[in-house]
Amino acid sequence: MRKYIGKAIKATIINVIVALLITIGIIGCIYLSFGAEIDQAISLVNKVAIDVENKKVEETTINEQNQIKNYPEYGTQYATIEIPKIDVNLPVYFGDTLEILKKGVGHSSGSYFPGEGGSIIYMGHNSTKMFRRFSELQIGNEITVKTSYGEYKYKIYDMQLINETETEKLPIQKEKEILMVYTCYPFNNIGYATQRYVVYAELEK
Question: Disulfide-capable partner of 122 in 137, 170, 181, 187 (CB 3.0 to 4.6 Å)?
Answer without folding.
Answer: 181
